[in-house]
Known about the structure:
The chain is mainly beta. The chain has a single domain (3-264), classed as M1 Pyruvate Kinase, Domain 3, CATH 2.40.33. It has helices at residues 105-115, 156-163, 229-235, and strands at 3-10, 19-21, 23-27, 30-31, 37-40, 59-63, 66-70, 77-79, 88-93, 96-102, 120-123, 130-131, 142-143, 151-155, 179-182, 194-197, 200-209, 216-217, 222-223, 237-238, 241-250, 254-257, 261-264. The longest helix is centred in the middle third of the chain and has 11 residues, at 105-115. The relative contact order is 0.20.
Amino acid sequence: MTITVTALHIYPVKSLGSITVESARVLRTGIQHDRNWMVVKPDGTFLTQRTHPQMALVETHIENNGLVLSSFGMDSLQVPAPSADAPRIKTDVWGDEVSAIDTGDAAADWLSQAIGESCRLTTFPDSEPRFCDPSVARKDDHTKFADAYPLLVISEASLEDLNSRLATPVTMDRFRPNIVVSGCEAFAEDTWKGLEINGARFRMLDRCARCSVPTIDPALGTLSGPEPIHTLNSYRSEDDEVYFGMNAASDGESLLSVGDTVKLR
């Protein structure tokens, strides 16, 4: 059975809407533009769907390498690149201190209205890499505003297995993967050490411990109850964590496309 890439997803702003693409450029930090921006409170505390599920309803687009935000009932907003002397906001991403770059009052005002809480939009300072956990990654593996690692890989078979146990099936977008593959057994990705796609090499780093975000319906921006985490906990838990998908890192820059063959290595 041939394993192939069946979907590619980018999340330009942490916890906001996704972009589904046919091709994507992968960098050492992950897919280009992925988690390059992040919403924070004025004091620097970052916001996610964990506490603000309505963030799922804010759509994101990339135009001319710049960010565009849109939401129902609001005019779209193009976010310009911040100036070299733009102010910084100190924030903490799961224990990693980041001096994030503020993108200005227009973006802050627009997002505050869309989300319903005073906030600022920041972008990642490329000159200050945020390194991954060296216990599972290489010392030069780094990411931007993702929770911990550059990429997340999930197989369609794993979702099918989960849905076979649920009264109401869920869609893959609840789990916010970057690379979706088909042609393997359910949870086969847990055992993979590395992949080669279109000549590029990827290392599988660690299983992805899941938070409450998959319990949010991304189409409605609301909590849908305890599922699918409740069911995952019944057969995919270990050491008080629930696992679904594999975190990964790229050995270099490459171009991926839907339909690419995936080779195990």
